[in-house]
Design a protein that fits this description.
Blueprint: H1 3-10, H2 18-24, E1 36-39, H3 49-64, E2 68-71, H4 85-95, E3 102-106, E4 109-111, H5 123-135, E5 139-142, H6 146-155, H7 176-184, E6 190-193, E7 202-207, E8 211-216, E9 223-225, H8 233-243, E10 248-252, H9 259-269, E11 275-279, E12 283-286, E13 289-292, H10 304-309, H11 313-324, H12 328-334, E14 356-357, H13 359-371, H14 375-389, H15 391-399, H16 401-409, H17 427-430, H18 451-464, H19 471-484, E15 487-488, H20 491-496, E16 503-504, H21 505-517, H22 525-532, H23 534-551
The structure holds glutamic acid (GLU).
Length: 552
Amino acid sequence: MDYKALAGRLFPTIDKTPDYWEEKYPPRDLKDGARVTRFAPSPTGFLHFGNLFTCLVSYKTAKDTNGVFYVRVEDTDQKRKVEGAIEVMLKGLSVYGIVPDEGVVGEDEQVGDYAPYYQSQRKEIYQTYAKSLVEQGLAYPCFMTPEELDEIRTAQENESIKGIWGKWAKHRDLGFDEVERRLENGEAWTLRLKSPGTLDGKCRFDDLIRGKIEMPENVQDVVILKSDGIPTYHFAHAVDDHLMRTTHVMRGDEWIASVPIHLQLFRVLGFKPPKYAHIAPIMKEENGGKRKLSKRKDPEAKVTYYAEQGFPKESVTEYMLTLANSNFEDWRRMNQNESIDKFPVNLKKMSVSGALFDMVKLTDVSKNVICKMSADKVFDLSYEWAKEYDSDLAALYEKDTARATAILNIDRENKKPRKDIAKWNDIPDYISYMYDETFVPCYDLTGNATPALAVKVLEKYIDAVNLDDDKDAWFGRMKDICPLVGCTPNVKEYKQNPDAFAGHVGDVSTIIRVALTGRTNTPDLFAITALLGESTVKARLEAALNHYKEEV
Ligand code: GLU
């Protein structure tokens, strides 16, 4: 027997050659500089914020260069497969505008010339390349049993280089006859790479995020096909990213340690390696230290969290870009109304130690995003959200959608719009006093506004208030009340001589504001008054008056 015969013996059903696949999946016809990136999830159904982040960076890298972003599903471990997982993950991405150009685009739905994009459907392809390696004497069947492998693991406890190499690679040089005897015997085998690495060899590569990296060359005879003929991640990565013509592999930095294996595989297979960008995990501050954002401990690790809370997708995307590139915020200041599509992600500017997740920052970013939206947009998006997550809010909106939109428009068209809303679930509280159903009176006062002054002010204002007033007339009425209750309409005058007055026009308006809204700080009170309507305004003023009368 020779290598060729051995290859035929190991892979009797494989009649194709690598050339066949090379021809079937030719290099892509793209412009110079176009990058081909991918997301390669295992179908667990869980989309971690870190996955979304990595995807956004991969997606932007492709889009910024008129390249291609595709999804390949790494489902070789059928035990871990979860029904409906792909749909959930793709939906999680599409919410943030990440829609693959090709690959798996729905549960069992694939588009693109490089199909199949499910690894479980690519067995013949992997085996063709595996067979070819055997033919060239570059890979060999290993018959070691799990018990033998365990023994080696124990024996290697104090070795610096672990795994199957050197003297541990017992089946690397088995004679053909011995191999034949074991095959005849029906012994299970895995296929191992016959590593060409040497102990003093070096693996050097230029990571697009971390820069130049040098590591010892791989000397392990790693498994490339498991005993069921399914490839390991290492082998599938090399074959798939080559045949799918990926130019840039962006993945978690837990894979850095495996790069020497990967580059060796690309070399042995005769493939040009892709460029790598290893992305550090998103971190979280805890007790003064840093740890990875955890699926178990942190609700915000789950991508669905943001939708549940009602963070608009624009905010989350914008926030992720602040995590990705520290210069994004400067860019945003210079390009306030530009689409983020225009911001080119720079891999070199990404954090090597892991960007820090900060909820306060996300909240700020989101307030900025929402304050620039039109009231119609805020209404539409928050109504969509409410229909799914807050039926009470949806019901309030449905009483009068035009009024709801007008409420959301208060102070929105100002030069400096207020930033009260960071996420849609802030809205019920923000607008609660605009609806009798949710209004909670609170008569606490601030400044010079005392219950005694409140009684005087409210008695006058109940008679004076007129919902047909324009803004000037409305404010005029408050000023007019001032001298009648011992206050001055002029704040400056009050400051010069505070002992001469019971308060100033600001105190008068505080009393009215508190009576109408239960709060001392609200957006424009004139607009609020108009939208509350006459009967509600009168009723709340009366209730407040009665309350203060009892208090004094
Ligand atoms: N399925 C691998 C993972 O989820 C993909 C890594 C890669 O992008 O190559 O970690």
